Structure prediction request, 880 residues.
Amino acid sequence: MQRYDAQMKTPSMLSPTAYMLGGKAPQRVAQPATIADVATIVTEAARTQTAVAIWGAGTRQFVVNPPQRYDLALDLRCLTRVVEYQPADLVVTFEAGCPLEAAQAVLAEHGQWLPWDPPVSATATIGGLLATAAWGPLRLGYGGPREWLLGMQVVLGDGRIVHSGGRVVKNVAGYDTHKLHLGACGTLGVIVAATFKVAPLPEYKASLQATFPTLAAAFQAAAAIRQPPLQPVALTIRLTDAVKLIARFAGVATAVERQLAQAIAICSQTGEVTNCADDQHLWESLYLIPAVDDLLLRIGVPDDKLAAAVEAVRLAAPPDLAIFPGLGLLIARWPVTVVDNLATLRQTLAIAGGYVVVEHSPVGIDRWGPPPPNIDLMRSLRQRWDPAGILNPGRWMVA
Amino acid sequence: MRDELIAALLRVVDPVIVLRRREELILYEYDGSALDQGMPEVVVVPRTTAEVAACVRVAAQLGAPIVARGAGTGLAGGSVPEQGGLVISLTRLNRILAIDPLARTARVQPGVINADLSMAAAPYGLHFAPDPSSQRASTIGGNIATNAGGPHCLKYGVTTNHVLAATVVLSDGRVIEVGSAALDTPGYDLLGVIVGSEGTLGIVTEALVRLTPNPEAIQTFLAIYDDLDAASATVSAIIARGIIPAALEMLVGQGIAAVEAAVHAGYPADARAVLLIEIDGLREEVAAQAVQIDALCRQYGARELRAARDEAQRAKLWAGRKGALAACARIAPHYHIQDGVVPRSRLPELLRLTEAVANRHQITIVNIFHAGDGNLHPLLLFDLRHPGALERAIAAGEEILQACVAAGGTISGEHGIGIEKRDYLGWIFNSADLAAFADLRAVFDPSGVMNPCKLLPHGSSCADIRYARGALRAVDRGAWI
Prediction:
């Protein structure tokens, strides 16, 4: 078996001031080197009612509230082992502190990848990205992390080390509890390792960029580009004062070229194709990074309501949007001055079966809106797995 | 207890949905698994979510076990009422409520038959991707309960990857919605644990599922081998090369002749092993993969590689594969089937081990399985009239499963745990893992009435069970792997 122990760089222990959340520093920092150490720390924290904030690289701490209580920063960046990687099986297990980019580099050595491209910096860890259910444009073609996750090891809030799923691509033994931890923002347990199936790197990737005179024209082109046989792996409309569409195709070169040619023809009917290349920075230019004073909203609706949702958002704030046709998702950046329009937007979108989550806010705000009707089941689950309520207290909707 | 339960049900629902005569109940005492039987005390056949909820509420109040059932094609005893109680058959909730070709989704009731949904979606160029071999009989609800797979799950994923939302009746009769047509709704992913929960967390009475566009091009091959190792090494090599076919199935030994005798699809009866390989996608992709697969099959020693001439021959090859379990009734009258999974690089050694186990236990084992996923289906064939045959079959099955686990695999890839594999769960999960599963179950079903004692081992979810393994049944009653 190949192992890559300690091949990734581990950070040095930092002082509590490096772990500030909402202006508060923890009393202390723990940087465990093993999963067993994580369990020991959490067990002790549960016994002593110590409030724990879980840290990866800290790139997405802003998507949840600052903690109500904050005693211990649990930094997982020393958990960097590639626990198991059998390239011939297309399955890999990483510890949670591995940065995704470093993990992709390990896979790329064998011509493989995890088609998961959340818009984050290179330091962002797999554990943190799973805990916050981060996703990127490739979700259209490959599905989100949920589709690639085969199993997980977690330290529950009472210190129990548990695992679910397995290391094979097909498995129905036990409940798929790893799906509960995906996006739970560390409120059910501390993700310490995750197993993924991986894919062969596509032979060829190519993207096109086009500008359109109207949003409606861009939506129309986006719909046409998604009609079989075309299968874009990513498709985004960036709406500011201008309307820009970016589409990406991947696979066998001849198939990519045919799709690209058809997509160019479609876009050229009403828009202007301005760029055509295999160009990751085209995609990086789409990332909506919130400035300190900005709100960043994640909005989801049934996909057929996406255009209507965009209209509702445009009524509420000047347009600064990344729209994901086919996924029913959009990311909006708002100046904090229009924050009062949030309630109305939530009401409008709720009627369409949608929601607004505030991923970044300079001010205290209701991030999730009205709780879902089955919130009682969620609370009861948290109660069982984190009975002392020590994991990220007050940070998420079910905590 | 039985009379009380029936009386209570008759008070809350239309008597026509309550089945209580012995000749009615006897139909519900088994599923597609060979080893398990149990007679329900009463069966209801509700027509609405409200009726399901009313029945659940009544049974739960009396503490009666509640077992949901689709078409009864399960292979692990999941829908067998081993403790009596109430069986809720969902086959009358069988309407496709809506197909949305633009959103590529369908809203369905749980009793809709898998293949019927794909047929209804066909005019829009869409299909429901999970394709268990039972798909002409099994229901979407049952597929959701077991997180069903199928040959094409190699490329397209299993049921959990194709369910967006579900309406669920909980053990207290409350009706909840989990998941959504919108992605990433705030909150824990409850849908993710409902799928595959085998009726232990609740009963799905409606679902929103994804439909998948039909591929532009399809090519199906039959690779024929005189050597078992060569065939399994080809499978490992295809995956290791990074080629993910739409399906990559393997038939071994006597199973090939049995399938050919049943369907006359052109399976060579004298072959040691065959691979059924299907690739799909854009035509350039299919052309490129066809060249690679041709080269690999020959490099690893295929005697012959045949391409399906036309759609009719392709359909026949698949009919043979999907009807394989029934076809094996030609070999022996009784079966015990396993569903272990191994990392795909370990297939050759597991197949060799299966042969050794078969010889040692003097039992016929036919392997007809999803090789590309590493999902073995050793079919242990025997004749119950021979003393000790059943015991040998069970022992052989356990030995193979243990080897799967030792190779880093698991005990079930798609059939579920149900009754048959619950006591093997401890081979792959420790007591802390199992306790966490039990915690989850208690959140959804605090009174412990939903399919009690299934899916988790004795002791972890079940205080007292009245259970005895029933008599074996003959193979050819309509079962699929």
Remarks:
- Confidence is low (pLDDT under 50) at residues 1-9 of chain A.
